[in-house]
Write a structure and sequence with these properties.
Keywords (chain B): Endoplasmic reticulum, Membrane, Transmembrane, Transmembrane helix
Family (chain B): Belongs to the DAD/OST2 family.
Structural class of chain A: alpha+beta
Strand content of chain B: under 5%
Low-confidence stretches of chain B: none
Helix content of chain B: over 70%
Subcellular location (chain B): Endoplasmic reticulum membrane
Number of domains of chain A: 3
Oligomer: heterodimer
Distance between the termini of chain B: 50 Å
Number of strands of chain B: 0
Pathway (chain B): Protein modification; protein glycosylation
Shape of chain A: elongated
CATH architecture of the largest domain in chain A: 3-Layer(aba) Sandwich
Radius of gyration of chain B: 18 Å
Order of helices and strands of chain B: HHHH
Structural class of chain B: mainly alpha
Shape of chain B: flat
Largest interface: A-B, 28 and 40 residues
Organism (chain B): Linnemannia schmuckeri
Radius of gyration of chain A: 35 Å
Number of helices of chain B: 4
Largest sheet of chain B: none
Largest sheet of chain A: 7 strands, mixed
Chain lengths: 449, 112
């Protein structure tokens, strides 16, 4: 009995330690089911994080949604040769799957076929022509890339994005191995973030007939070649593009990358893929607004409405999800905007100090409302690459002064009050003297005339 | 210069001698009103127009008082009697008072 309780507690602890905010149902599409054996380490990593993997080859019919509900939470494309989507699936379905909040990992290779190219194009990611590879005659791996110089060693300290929310640099034990196709991302698309790019000397060229000399410039070269990019859609669904299925393979996970003339190192691929999948599958860097409070200075409750020029305090609590739990979020760039069509006030919120009991990060500021009445929005619009987009809107009314809330007499206008009064008194005095001041003679004179 | 002095002197003498007392009273009242108006105008130039309604009310009260007093003076001047055959001085003064009441109502309302 005790053992079973212990076991169930342990199981619950394990479940609690998990994992993805979206869910655990994962569909993996492979070119053939034989490829399952290439990625055994990946499967065990994902299952260790409690994902339920469904491994399908591309000839098996599959549907992503049923009755407008997602049947899977995550989708992994490890099928670069896929000429046609499996029956029951198409690009529109995949985009609809993301619109419903599903996350996608799309891995390509030199043989990347049309359907996945077109799908990537929907996200402003353009893979280079078919049968091209990223080649580098300086940074190739001594062992895996000896023949074609197509397995390149990428140094994360200089060729990886510095955004720790996605792949933190200090967690990688060594350089990253890459063999596959390069892509370019539209720099104008602010939702897209390149994570890994090629060394300066690399270029993207056909890897089939290497003996033929090049007769034109490569389409993309050097740092313009993105190797891994990610996108977070406006609904916070995440997608990662990798130019290389080999990056995820057991062979690359356990390789010892060695550049010409360098020492042997440990491959960072396993950790890189772990962090990348954690990010993509919403296991980390997910933010949530826990509470929004606002009140006048010296009060506790939110008023029904404010009055112009009131002093008020705004507080927002944010939590960040990682390691299967919500933690306090820390940042120094959360801003509050007070908007009526235009922002009237924009102020950076200050974070309260965290202590042991903190479960949320609390950001607060005290400000004076503008001298403008109307319906305003208190808005925290916090959008940073790698983090869930936060858009918290609180609508409040700001009233003008009532007629009896103004000062009754304005000291500046006292001369005018005096003048008006003196005109009245003057009239009385004048009338009194005119009528009873002994001026009758005049009137009589007038009458005679 | 001397001529101007002589002319001013004779004007003053004639005014003191020939003008009826009631008109002199109206004149002094008008001078008082005029000075009040000028003081306010100087003040608004220095202090700015901020309570604009109060300034307008105060200034308009002086202007209106001045105009009404001028009307009263014209209508009660014996020399103008031929122009106002139907208007007795009593009637003119009654008009003057009635108009002043209206003016001061408006001013009090507009003062703020």
């Amino acid at each position: 009995m005790r053992a079973s309780i212990l076991l169930s507690t342990l199981a619950m602890a394990l479940v609690a330690q998990a994992t993805s905010l979206t869910g655990l149902r994962t569909l993996v599409l492979l070119d053939t089911l034989d490829d399952v054996l290439i990625y055994t380490e990946l499967w065990s990593d994902l299952e260790g994080r409690h994902f339920n993997l469904t491994l399908n080859d591309v000839s098996t019919p599959v549907s992503l949604t049923k009755y407008d509900r997602r049947l899977y939470d995550h989708l992994i494309f490890l099928a670069p040769n896929m000429k046609e989507y499996p029956k029951g699936m198409n690009a529109k379905e995949v985009i609809g799957f993301m619109a419903e909040g599903g996350n996608v990992i799309l891995a390509g290779s030199s043989e990347l076929a049309n359907p996945l190219r077109e799908l990537s194009r929907e996200f402003d990611v353009e893979f280079d022509n078919r049968y091209t590879s990223v080649l580098d005659h300086f940074n190739y791996d001594k062992e895996l890339g000896q023949a074609k110089h197509d397995t390149i060693v990428v140094d994360p300290s200089s060729h990886m994005s510095k955004i720790d929310a996605i792949v933190p640099q200090d967690k990688l034990p060594g350089p990253i191995l890459f063999r596959g196709i390069g892509h370019s991302v539209n720099p104008k698309n602010s939702l897209l973030t390149p994570i890994l790019w090629a060394p300066q000397e690399a270029y993207s060229w056909e890897s089939v007939n290497l003996d033929e000399s090049a007769d034109q410039d490569p389409l993309i070269a050097g740092k313009d070649i993105s190797l891994v990019s990610v996108m977070q859609a406006r609904n916070n669904a995440r997608i990662a593009f990798l130019g290389s299925t080999d990056m995820l393979s057991d062979a690359f996970f356990s390789a010892s990358p060695k550049k010409q003339g360098d020492k042997e190192t440990v491959s960072g691929n396993r950790k890189f893929i772990e962090e990348l999948t954690k990010w993509t599958f919403q296991e980390k860097s997910a933010l949530d607004v826990v509470a929004v409070q606002h009140h006048k200075v010296g009060e506790e409750e939110a008023p029904a409405h404010y009055r112009i020029k009131d002093n008020m305090t705004y507080t927002i609590s944010l939590a960040e999800y990682h390691e299967g739990e919500w933690h306090p979020f820390s940042a120094d760039d959360v801003q509050l905007e007070l908007i009526m069509l235009d922002p009237y006030v924009r102020k950076t919120l200050e974070q309260l100090e965290l202590n042991d009991q903190s479960t949320v990060g609390t950001f607060t500021t005290t400000l004076q409302l503008p001298d403008q009445y109307g319906v305003f929005k208190f808005m925290v619009n916090y959008k940073r690459p790698g983090l869930t987009y936060i858009e918290s809107v609180t609508t409040v009314g700001i009233h003008p002064f009532r007629h009896d809330q103004y000062p009754r007499f304005i000291s500046q206008a006292k001369p005018y009050y005096t003048s008006a009064a003196s005109m009245g008194v003057g009239l009385l005095v004048f009338s009194f003297v005119y009528l009873w001041g002994g001026l009758d003679s005049t009137v009589k004179t007038t009458k005679k005339a | 210069m001397n001529d101007i002095k002589t002319a001013a002197n004779s004007l003053l003498t004639a005014y003191i001698k020939d003008t009826p007392k009631s008109l002199k009273l109206i004149d002094s009242y008008m001078v008082y009103v005029l000075l009040t108006g000028i003081i306010q105008f100087v003040y608004v130039v220095i202090a700015g127009t901020f309570p604009n309604n109060a300034f307008l009310a105060g200034f308009i009260s002086t202007v209106a008082s001045f105009v009404l007093a001028a009307n009263l003076r014209i209508q009660t001047n014996p020399k103008n009697a031929s122009q106002f055959p139907t208007t007795s001085p009593e009637r003119a003064f009654a008009d003057f008072l009635a108009c002043n009441v209206v003016v001061h109502f408006a001013v009090a309302n507009f003062l703020g």
